Amino acid sequence: MSNQDKPLLDVRDLTVAFGAGESESQPVRSVSLSLGRSEVLGVVGESGSGKTMISKSIMRLLPSGGRIASGSVWLDGTDLTTLDAESIRRVRGARIGMIFQEPMMSLNPAMRIGEQMVEAFVADRRLTPAQRQTAMLEMLERVRMPDPDACLRAYPHEFSGGMRQRIMLATALLMRPELLIADEPTTALDVLIQKDVLDLMIELVRDLGTSVMLISHDLGLVARYADRVCVMCDGKVVETGDVATILSSPSEQYTKELLQSLPARDRGRQSTDEIDTNKPVMKVIDLHVEFGRRRLLPWLKSRIVRAVDGVDFSLRRGETLAVVGESGSGKTTLGRALLRLVETTAGSVEFDGDEISSRSARQLRNLRSRMQIVYQDPFSSLDPRMRVEQIVAEGLRLSSLTGADRANRVRETLHDVGLSPEMARRYPHELSGGQRQRVSIARAIAMRPDVIVTDEAVSALDVTVQARVLTLLQTLQERYGFSYLFITHDIGVVDQVADRVLVMYRGRVVESGNKAEVLDTPRHPYTCRLLEAVPRLEKTTDGGFRHSNMRFDPPPPPDGYLHDENFLDINANAGVLVHVTETHQVAYTEAGERAASLG
Amino acid sequence: MTVVSNPAAVYTTTAMPNRRLGEFLLAIILITALAGSLYTPHDPLALDYESRLLPPSSAHLMGTDQFGRDVLSRTMAAAGTSVIVSFFSVLVAVSFGLLLGSIAGYAGGWTDRLVGLFLDAFMAFPGILLALGIMTIIGPHMYGIVLALGFAYMPNVARIVRSTVLSIREKEYVEASKALGNSEAFTVVRHVIPQCISPLTVIATAIFGGAVLSESALSFLGLGVPPPHPTWGGMLADARQYMSIAPWLSIFPGVAITIALLGVNLFGDALRDRFDPRLAR
Description:
Chain A is an alpha/beta fold. Chain A is built from 20 helices and 25 strands.
């Protein structure tokens, strides 16, 4: 049969519209794409590009008010757009499975896993309960859940984000659908877990012969897992083709722009020479931050969480120190502790030669203007009831500037961050995400601080916007000489902006050094795993990109030390930081007495 | 329909007339209250046994009550009392509730628990019972009612403020304000309390309505504004006995209360939308 040659899914000239008449908007405009059997198609685009709307119209699950204005969606010879409600219900789940971004929200917290998984069989009444049970257990085993039997009886909160996503995957594949739609399946997960889940997903669908539509904003990720890629912008398909072809020789302007926006190493940046190595603006010695969990009963021992567990580092004037780690590694707490926004438990923070960890709140207030922070979420970090100019001027209230000077400073700062003067009168909700983040930056730099902590400041932004904000941060650093403590989970961003890198795991520093040392010759096993997990695109000599699958093997530790393999164990003793070069430090475990005597 | 996809359309097509209507009804009440304090067709307290329980006529537009007093005059005179009592009750409830609620919500810990205990004790009594108790101590006086109703409704306000403050306190812009060097008190006043305006306007209008009714209930029990001074609630309570033979006695003060409540609620909704820059157009 020629059936095998025909694409499984064929979207023809699809247009999705909301509203009617003058207020009509079309998030998807004449999109055509096809997906062959056992093929993985990546759909890449920034927010608002309509990629999610496509998946929703395939499933006929458009939000209310939306409709398929024209076009057709053919699944193996059936036009899904013409099916009645009853027939489309039989397609959902059985023939098209779907997994969503938020594993925390897509499972009902009040139901056992088994009760939720069994719902997948609703459309299929042929199986007996016992057969269903067997099928569920088998599928859970295939997604490598440690104890499938117990898993069925457990509630969602008992599992981590990665495990929940694997359960979702098992549920979606339970009916052996021909097509799996994965909409940003791992965006909410840490990079190591992301790799875990996606590797598993791809292995499984290859095995079952399922076709996958992988929707993501991350071009690197799609490049790693997809066969073909479809680039979307503004509701239209910009370019479709083989992953390798698109990466190496994109034909459309937008694709090129998208590729150029990907954070990549800026080889021109050689700032390490200029930085005065003798005068750190900030010096952190053996910093500890502990949070006490509330005791359940007064006589029970209170549980202590060591968010930051003995961190040392110094930040030099005008440099960018990147702090990398997964969620829960303590990097955010570290940034807040530097600004004394959380109280430190032990250790010292020196700012410009002054010990500040023991300062009173009042004394600290004068120092605040010299240390600032930019937050991740531009939606919650700006007061919704204040105008942009008020937000930016707020820090100047305590400065010695007069009224007119303040107004000038606000104007100048808005100009610095690339916002037009008209923006000054706007409210945050009237701005885009990128603009909001610029306001956040403006607020932080209005007082010309010495140190700026950027806490995942670009993580919530689209790639092209992210690239512009990163450039802005670099320009501002050159102009005003700020030192950045750049907290991020994104190795690509680190590669672009950092001078030095600090890798954190469970509140401890496992490796630190110059960017090239840490990223090119990682020595700690955790750093190696982290770098391998990050999907990275590499610039080729002819200007294109290719996906690079890097392998890092930690080089043998220096004499007297062992690899810090027990870093995963939260109760294990901290490794010792050992200088492998003058600037490069790695955590190792001392090899018994011998190590101690050798020093 | 375009309504679904365009929130702005919803706002302009449905919310605007509501605001207008609210403003209109509220204006009627306020003008009546003002006019009632300056001029009434008859003396609202003057008894006239010749003309008891007269139906509406040209001489008495809303009829007369069991003592021959002019219902129109009494309704007009009562408007002032009701509005003043309710307004100040709301003011007392909101100011104390805001204070306690924001302290409890922002400080947390033991302060929160103590304030919570205090509020729970208050809330354990039904509002009207609490007001009754306070009124028995203070004695029947208009400002006694204000205090009694104000404190009876205060826990509701404090609860709402506390919960709002609890969620706002964790927002990054509150931490950012501290990072800019602002003191805690300034941060609360500048960034936390303004976020309570939306829920506060809603509860304030609800309290205003409740106060009009509670005031009448207290008056009915002889613990409100002392008779013979007219209040809507008092009039309504008196009219109950004559419901079958003189329905106008209950209809007119009843209509007055309805207009006041509807006006205040619609106006409160409009006010809330206005105060929220995310909804303002």
